[in-house]
């Protein structure tokens, strides 16, 4: 039987916070070059989950957390997207054990479906470094210093 991948909105529950902390810690172990500057502490995760301008998503392989994404309205945006309805893909990560599975696809489809009312989704290439080629294959294009997906 094949593994079923589902992507869910993360809420500030003890279970989902623990899953995000586990995945961010595992991601840093899998990719030692990643610097997070303390952005994945329990307090920061809870604060961002309770912030109306941010949305965390978690993809599951069966019942196991396999990856996450963070979408936000905040932050600096590319000049070419000023005065447009856009959202930033601030993080997009899938654990190595699930890189060759449908986890990436499930997570990206949910990101895109949630924000279809926007003109674009953009990302800083460094924030999505491990998944950049997957995102480009999924429709993101290089636009200056950014990756942009236009609807």
From TrEMBL:
Superkingdom of this protein's organism: Bacteria
Annotated N-acetyltransferase domain residues: 18-151
InterPro entries in the cross-refs: Acyl_CoA_acyltransferase (IPR016181), GNAT_dom (IPR000182)
SUPFAM superfamilies: Acyl-CoA N-acyltransferases (Nat) (SSF55729)
Record's protein name: N-acetyltransferase domain-containing protein
Record organism: Chitinophaga hostae
């Amino acid at each position: 039987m094949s593994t079923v991948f589902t992507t869910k909105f993360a809420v500030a529950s003890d279970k989902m916070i623990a899953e995000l902390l586990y995945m961010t810690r595992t991601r840093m172990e899998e990719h030692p070059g990643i610097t997070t500057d303390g952005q994945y502490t329990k307090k920061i995760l809870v604060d961002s989950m309770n912030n109306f301008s941010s949305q965390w998503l978690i993809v599951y392989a069966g019942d196991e957390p396999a990856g996450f994404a963070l979408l936000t309205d905040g932050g600096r945006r590319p000049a070419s997207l000023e005065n447009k309805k856009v959202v930033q893909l601030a993080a997009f990560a899938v654990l190595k054990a699930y890189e060759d599975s449908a986890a990436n696809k499930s997570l990206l489809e949910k990101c895109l479906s949630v924000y279809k009312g926007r003109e674009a989704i953009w990302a800083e290439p460094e924030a999505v470094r491990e998944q950049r080629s997957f995102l480009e294959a999924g429709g993101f294009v290089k636009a200056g210093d950014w990756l942009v997906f236009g609807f």
